[in-house]
Amino acid sequence: MSTLEENLKPSIVLLSASDLELELKELKEEIKSLRDNNDIDHSRLNEKIDNIAKSITWLNIARSQGMWKSRTCRHMENDACSAWNVNEPEKLGIPAEAVTLEQTGIKRISVLKFPELCIACPLYEAKRS
Ligand code: SF4
Description:
The chain is 47% helix and 8% strand. It is mainly alpha-helical. The strands form two sheets. The chain has a two-stranded antiparallel sheet with strand order 1-2. The protein has a two-stranded antiparallel sheet with strand order 3-4. The longest helix has 56 residues, at 17-72. The chain binds iron/sulfur cluster (SF4). Iron/sulfur cluster (SF4) is lined by residues 69-70, 73, 75-76, 81, 83-84, 111, 117-118, 121, 123-124. Residues 17-44 form a coiled coil.
């Protein structure tokens, strides 16, 4: 074949209909597999959301017990816990509005504003009437 003929050689590739059909079939299967995987991902996601919802229910129970303890503990004075001196409340996620700084430099936590402090507190003692 001369160089001229080489340059004139068509660059179009002819595909047979059966090749196209096969490619289409493979593409369909790929799309179906992607959809199936997506369904599995959705189902896993729903399962995780359900677990988170259950955890939140548990937290609501814990929080309500913390509220009850904050109102009935003998260490609660002027809305604040007198038993704990929390040096770095921000590191524990205690909101700034629940922290008061006494003249002595001790930081007190308002358990009415942040009853979560009481949830697992080992110092709880019921008020004596
Ligand atoms: S339960 Fe604990 S954190 Fe709450 S007021 Fe009593 S001593 Fe303080």
